[in-house]
């Protein structure tokens, strides 16, 4: 799916991802965030994905790195959103892959919630509320 970089893009780290990021040392956190947030700059939004985990969950890893992430991507209300479901270290990969059905369910729920909000009104106020909530981390593409 090709996406022009002129459209607003957001990376939203859910609370589990934020908790796991906080548990990483600064170097690992910086490297996986840089890889995830590449989504804000690439022409084709899906270029940051390594492979699909389930229908709605994709896998991001830092090449030759120790960290991984499960994410879901959607476009709602003219906004392109990358939702980071979780972040984990390479040595924990098997545990997270065994729980991929759980992350598929979380992705479906969150996608449905955002699509419902987007149908009734603009998503921007919701995203701003998430930005002000300490349980989430929201990063926006430069304007």
Radius of gyration: 14 Å
Percent of residues in helices: 25-40%
**Unreliable sequence segments:** none
For the biggest sheet, the summary is: 6 strands, mixed
Main-sheet strand order equals: 2-3-4-5-1-6
| Percent in strands | 25-35%
**How many strands?**
6
SS element count, helices = 5
Can you write the helix and strand succession as a string?
EHHEEEEHHHE
Global geometry: globular
Our measurement of the CA-to-CA distance between the termini, rounded to an integer number of angstroms, reads 22 Å
What's this, in brief?
Helices cover 39% and strands 25% of the residues. It has 143 residues and is α+β, with helices and mostly antiparallel strands.
Which keywords apply here?
143 residues, alpha+beta, 6-stranded mixed β-sheet
Describe the structure.
By secondary structure, the chain is α+β, with helices and mostly antiparallel strands. Strands 2-3-4-5-1-6 form a 6-stranded mixed β-sheet, sandwiched between helices. It is 39% helix and 25% strand. It is globular and about 40 Å long. A hairpin with a 5-residue loop joins β2 and β3.
